[in-house]
Amino acid sequence: MSAREEILAAVRGALREADRTEAPVPRGYRTVTPPDVVDLFAERVVDYRASLTRCTAAELPDAVRAALGPARKVLVPDGFPIEVAGSADSAELDTFDAVVTTAALGIATTGTLVLDHGPGQGRRALSLVPDVHVCVLRQDRIVPGVPQAVAALDPARPQTWISGPSATSDIELTRVEGVHGPRTLHVIVVAD
Amino acid sequence: MPAFPEAARKALADTQLRRNLAHATGTIRAKREAVVGEVAEWEELRLAGAAIKDNTLRRLDEHLLTLEASLQARGATVHWARDAAEACEIVARIAHGHGIDEVVKVKSMATQEIGLNEALAAHGVTAWETDLAELIVQLGDDLPSHILVPAIHRNRAEIREVFRRGMADAGRPAPPGLSDEPAELAAAARLHLREKFLRARMAVSGANFAVAESGTLVVVESEGNGRMCLTLPEVLVSVVGIEKVVPTFADLDVFLQLLPRSSTGERMNPYTSTWSGVTPGDGPQEMHVVLLDNGRTRALADEVGRQALRCIRCSACLNVCPVYERTGGHAYGSVYPGPIGAILNPLLKGVGVDEQTDSLPYASTLCGACFEACPVRIDIPEVLVHLRAKVVDAHREGVPKPEAVAMKSAAWLLSDARRLGLAERGLGVANRALTRFGRRVLPGGRRALGRLPWPGSLWTNARDLPAPPRESFRAWWRKGGRP
Ligand code: SF4
């Protein structure tokens, strides 16, 4: 018998006596929503030691420039909504100082950005290798909690959920920002 | 591995270990409590998590077939492995097929369980751990001691030494003048590993969840080493225990709330990656998934123990366990330490096979803290008691275990009032005799007996035995209940 047949047979054998009817799953948690999602999102992002700016669409170019600061080589994925001086997707990610992307949505209760790597977000490695990540999120893309985010996302697309900068607590539980991912995460929330 | 009581004795004598552990478990416990307290619907989430996992396990064969079909439809190759050797064989074959002799790894309990690194080395393939703590463990030629913070038994000075000695042999050497500041140590790891990430052509990962309906794998992490491994190499192999399956993508909303809060005490871990097979132009273009049994179907067949397969490896039960807090992970002799290890190991390996595994169901006070903390409501004490009975049964044929003898004499004593009365009077005498063996005072002021002579020593070698009261309850009652 192949391993596949043998494992499936063992599973069936183990469950021979089991009651196979589905138990109901309580789903009340899906209806809980916090009051002001944008404020909560902003507060939780900062709690993760990321920095945050709120601005209008007209102020966005300046906000992006300010967030990028002294970065000289900047990656800008195709489909990023405004003009930013920088290069598009590159093979030599390691030589870039910063990257700017958009995000598919934000989660208020956890301060999480979700990238599904559509236009303006680039492939997965883009937001990973450079040391600074500036992420632009439209205010109306912020959902209250994890259930609403999962419901809105398409499982067929690869996703990267980002909550604050890369961090480790492996040495005596002392938190250190940035081991491999960007050490600096700057979130810009755009109104209207 | 020695049986738990013996291994625990060594761990208990290690003051550095005890200090690190008390600090770590205490800190994580407090963080966890704070963020769990924020979620009003926590209990409902736990019930939902347990119900989803139970439903899945009850129809595991169907969900596995769905998972296989959706993975294949998304361009992944699916392999099935009955045991550790078969799983390692498959991974080595994939590496050899591409002429690859070096792989990068995301921290994964399943690959540790099957001893993948050692097996690959025997096949001429070097596997580099990329999680910072796992790197410390690997370069120090050491064993992990906690699910979440595997190098918690090491302090910063030791880590600096491990890096200075080990990094040069493994690739980019540690920078000269490396201090023991955590930030500097992390920066050294960043440089050392970046070289490996950019060079590696193949990565090996585990998965926290595997979604049957969409063929989505999920990896939860915080450093970004996972994202490096999952996106930079050409070939990705994921070793996934068959219990990791959840039916639908929507079910993840429960587990992505339960896991980070229970595990690191954060609202969300810094990075979560999900992928469904191959995405053209983004990430590895060849993907393999190894579905691993290695005892899981044995655990599934145990109708009481089956619930252990709900485990999402958050490590919350370790951090609340009074036994783990004092002995640390090594004493459990397995990649699964603490309360979950005490039940999962015997369930996966079977009881009555080796002494070490059989000793694990006894490595607990049955206080129930693990059940309270467990995000998927695994009744660990219930399974412990069930497994103790199985261990005793397995030994019934041969020489009875001391516990069985003790229980039998206790039953004889307790089942007859006159016998009990006599014994209690005897205890008063014994007390005066026994206190001579030791003069320790337990927390709370009660006196402890020191080490008892054999066979009592089997108990007192690893535990304090409170001194019996000077007077029996019955004698005190007869006097009218006055001290
Ligand atoms: S048994 Fe429960 S608490 Fe322990 S690691 Fe597993 S899921 Fe977490």
Q: In words, what does this structure look like?
A:
The complex is a heterodimer of chains A (192) and B (483). Chain A is built from 4 helices and 11 strands, in the order H-H-E-H-E-E-E-E-E-E-H-E-E-E-E. Chain A has 192 residues and is an alpha/beta fold. The mean pLDDT of chain A is 93. Chain B is of the alpha/beta class. Chain B is globular. The model of chain B has no long low-confidence stretch (mean pLDDT 88). Chains A and B meet through helix 1, helix 4, strand 8 and strand 9 of A and helix 2, helix 3, helix 4, strand 1 and helix 8 of B. Bound molecules: iron/sulfur cluster.
Summarize the structure.
The complex is a heterodimer of chains A (192) and B (483). In chain A, 20% of the residues lie in helices and 22% in strands.
Write the layout of secondary structure elements.
The complex is a heterodimer of chains A (192) and B (483).
Chain A: H1 3-14, H2 37-47, E1 51-55, H3 60-68, E2 74-75, E3 98-102, E4 105-107, E5 112-115, E6 132-138, E7 142-143, H4 146-152, E8 159-162, E9 167-168, E10 176-177, E11 184-190
Parallel strand pairs in A: 1-11, 2-3, 3-6, 4-7, 6-11
Antiparallel strand pairs in A: 4-5, 5-8, 9-10
Chain B: H1 4-12, H2 15-37, H3 42-58, H4 60-73, E1 76-81, H5 84-97, E2 102-105, H6 109-113, H7 116-122, E3 126-129, H8 132-139, H9 156-170, H10 182-199, E4 202-205, E5 209-211, E6 216-221, H11 225-231, E7 235-241, E8 245-246, H12 252-263, E9 271-276, E10 286-292, H13 296-301, H14 316-320, H15 322-327, H16 338-349, H17 355-359, H18 369-373, H19 380-395, H20 402-414, H21 417-434, E11 448-449, H22 457-460, E12 465-466, H23 473-478
Parallel strand pairs in B: 1-10, 2-3, 2-4, 4-7, 5-8, 7-10
Antiparallel strand pairs in B: 5-6, 6-9, 11-12
The structure holds iron/sulfur cluster (SF4).
